[in-house]
Design brief:
The protein is an alpha/beta fold and 414 residues long. The protein has 15 helices and 15 strands. A 7-stranded mixed sheet has the order 4-10-9-8-7-5-6, with helices on both faces. β7, α8 and β8 form a beta-alpha-beta unit. The radius of gyration is 21 Å and the shape is globular. The model has no long low-confidence stretch (mean pLDDT 97). The structure holds pyridoxal-5'-phosphate. The site of pyridoxal-5'-phosphate has 16 residues, from α5.
Length: 414
């Protein structure tokens, strides 16, 4: 009997339908039946360098032979973690950056940033600033802060409020943010924002929106937190979306692309301003937060190898070049009857939305479409129950993009 309880799975429906992945190369993964799939989603938005990069395995093995792990609480540190923090601080568009490493995925980074935002205001003598604002369609992971901040109701409604003092605004309405901050006069700690909404359905920012909300946060003394768990480390054709959109965030959350998922690791990047009360000479302020595996040396070594590879193969330039290729390839899908919208044009990110009337008329339609696409050898998934995700590895070829779109077209047009 299968004993594995899968995330986000109806375990009754899963029985006998498991897809057991055993290998991968480039943009292709292979299951235990020997079937190959073109992975249009880079697993969960993370396998940016593609599969089968053995040099990352070598980096992990070399580090594990030296020192597999040692904790980094209080005084302790290790060379790969120290060097990784220096490296991230150099490439991140965050002024005077300090880097807090997190051990798992983006959810750890989000909880760390939420706690740090609140701790910061207490440390600077403004303890009333505790409310965190996020947006509709937002996805900030599944730990307590992320679940509470999430703007996808089906992912939050089964749970009691986990973190209090959270407000939501419409994802595309800068004036709504300003209004909430004004109404909650002096109580808002931070605004969490994915520069490009990912799991909520791939929504690139409306023109001018990010500059407006950034400006509102600055004027109103609210920390601007860029959640770059998907967009960080190259997916939008620059190292970070914060660079592309000149966000100058107070805090930035990252994970996935930092290691391309070869080992779990994340990082919260704090600006000098947020760090100051905790770092200044003579301070008694301590950020009492951390995880057993924060700064794990093997994960840090793998992250270095991943960043080396991205630089050496110029994969971010490749994403920038493929941005319009992907956008132009998916655009014609919009004319299909089953498709109500196609969103693309910011890096290697796209979504194909399935028409609402068709979904309402047949509630199993969208999942059957995902299945039919998979049966033709392409993996996609459903975002927020409405849209098909496209976020391929950076190494995807133009022919492979063509194949993804061809299969989408066959299934959605047929
Ligand atoms: C923007 C964003 N933030 C946070 C998370 C949570 O990351 P994880 O699932 O790695 O914990 C995700 C995951 O997809 C994400 O897309």
């Amino acid at each position: 009997m299968n004993r594995m309880w899968n995330p986000f799975a109806n375990m009754a429906a899963l029985a006998g339908n498991e897809i057991t992945m055993v290998g991968g190369q480039g943009s292709t993964v292979v299951d235990s039946q020997g079937r190959s799939y073109l992975d249009a989603i880079a697993s969960l938005w993370y396998c940016n360098i593609g599969y089968g990069r053995t040099e990352l395995a070598e980096a992990a093995a070399a580090q594990m032979r030296e020192l597999a792990a040692y904790h980094t609480f209080e005084f302790f540190s290790n060379p790969p973690a120290e060097a990784l923090c220096r490296r991230i601080a150099e490439i991140a568009p965050v002024s005077d950056a300090r880097v807090f490493l997190t051990p798992g995925g983006g959810s750890d980074a989000i909880d760390t940033a939420g706690k740090l935002a609140r701790a910061y205001w207490r440390a600077v003598g403004q303890p009333a600033k505790q409310i965190i604002v996020s947006r509709s369609h937002a996805y900030h992971g599944m730990n307590a802060y992320g679940t509470s901040l999430g703007g996808i109701p089906m992912l939050t409604e089964a749970f009691a409020p986990l973190v209090g003092q959270v407000e939501h605004v419409a994802w595309d309405d800068a004036a709504a943010l300003e209004k909430v901050i004004e109404q909650l006069d002096g109580q808002v700690a931070a605004f969490f924002c994915e520069p490009v909404i990912g799991a909520g359905g791939v929504y690139p920012p409306p023109p001018g929106y990010l500059a407006q909300v950034r400006d509102i946060c600055r004027r109103r003394e609210v920390l601007f937190v860029a959640d770059e768990v998907i967009t960080g480390f190259g997916r939008v054709g620059e190292w970070f979306a914060s660079g592309r959109f000149s966000l100058d965030p107070d805090l930035m959350t990252t994970a996935k692309g930092l290691s391309s998922g070869y080992l779990p690791i994340g990082a919260v990047i704090a600006s000098g301003r947020v760090a100051e009360p905790f770092w200044r000479a003579g301070t008694t302020e301590v950020f009492r937060h951390g995880y057993t595996y924060s700064g794990h040396p093997a994960s840090a070594a793998v992250a270095h190898a991943n960043l080396d590879l991205i630089e050496r193969e110029q994969l971010i330039q490749r994403v920038a070049a493929l941005e319009s290729v992907l956008a132009e390839a998916v655009a014609p899908l919009a004319s299909l009857e089953l498709v109500s919208a196609v969103r693309a044009g910011t890096g290697l990110l796209a979504a194909v939305e399935i028409a609402e009337d068709a979904r309402l008329a047949d509630p199993t339609l969208a999942q059957r479409i995902v299945r039919a696409i998979r049966d033709r050898g392409v993996i996609t998934r459903l975002l927020r129950g409405v849209a098909l995700q496209i976020s391929p590895p950076f190494v995807i070829t133009e022919d492979e993009i063509g194949r993804i779109v061809e299969v989408f077209g066959e299934v959605l047009g047929g």
